[in-house]
Amino acid sequence: MHKIRFFQVVVLALLLSLAGKAGSAAAIGMITEPIVIDSMLRGGEVSKTVTVFNPQKTEAVYLFGSDGGIKGWVTFFEKGKPDTPITKVNVPATSYYDVIAKIKVPDATPNGDYVGEVFVKQAAADGPKENGSSVSIAQMVSRQVKIKVTDQEVVKLDTALIPESYDVKQGDPLKIKIIYENLGNIALKPSFQLKIINSDDGKTVFNAIYPYPEAEAVVNPGERKTMPVQEWPTAGQPTGRYLAEASTLVGGETLQKNEFRFSLENKNVASGKVLGSFISAIGGGEPRQGWAILAGCAVLLVLVFLALKKRKPLL
Predict the structure, then answer these.
(1) Is 8 within a domain?
(2) How many CB atoms lie within 10 A of CB 12?
(3) Do 20 and 139 share a domain, yes or no?
(4) How many structural domains does the chain have?
């Protein structure tokens, strides 16, 4: 999905650039990939990013709205300001701008399929008219939205675990970044269970459940949320190989399991690995060549030193 979005941004930029060079009237751009929500409850909310592009050489004012079957369902916010609704933004010249579109299905909406659009249009500008007066000129681009409203709850969550390092120094904590993506239609507050197993003897050395932080907002449908980093203290644990097993829990039920392996190393050994990597890099990935190059350099330095020592000073 992210690769597709990146490709669309690149294509949008190229097309708008060509349009501008050709002297066309293109004065607004937007990623037009349809927004499709397969299951949404009445009263439910989902947020989507709307990316616009101003290809002009001057700042432009863009207006936002919704129409069709979802008219009145959408409220727009600046990214990072979820409590301040907006209807327009000022976009700098030749710049992209992200706006959050929050879609909320009204409580009395019957089950069914709804098709509409979110649109962006440039604030009207005055253009010339034959009789000397002026006429308002506005340009608009839209993005289709398809929503299936249902009364059935769907609980679906994807969890990604990203350890800060797979080689942890003894005494330093294992740090894990957790990313949740809510693929269902209800807001979730998942718990996280972490189990650490010593691969050498198969014994579980740590097992705990981390409840969802009270200060964190829920993971809304359609939202991808990065959580605060979780840590496992390694103090007192022997060096060796370990297995980390993680479970995502909602209402006491396991939705997904993830695992990864990591090593706990003596700090001196870890420092030696850094030196080894440096030597290997010198040798183009071959440690032996790296050591040979270093040895050659050392010999050369000794020869230069001896030559300078034997050299008689000029009178």
Answers:
(1) yes
(2) 19
(3) yes
(4) 3
Sign of torsion over alpha carbons 292, 295, 301, 303: negative
Q: Which domain holds residue 303?
A: 278-310
Query: Which pLDDT score is estimated for 23?
Result: 39
pLDDT digits (tens, 9 = 90+) for 101-157: 999 999 989 999 999 999 999 877 655 555 554 444 558 899 999 999 999 999 999
The 10s digit of each residue's pLDDT in 224-257 is: 999 999 999 998 899 999 999 999 999 889 999 9
Same-domain pairing of 164 and 46: no
Q: Are residues 169 and 306 in the same domain?
A: no
* Residue 57: its H or E element: none
Q: Check if the beta carbon of residue 180 is closer than 8 Å to that of residue 190.
A: yes
Structure token digits, residue 160: 């990604």
DSSP 205-227: EEEEEEPPPTTSPPB-TT-EEEP
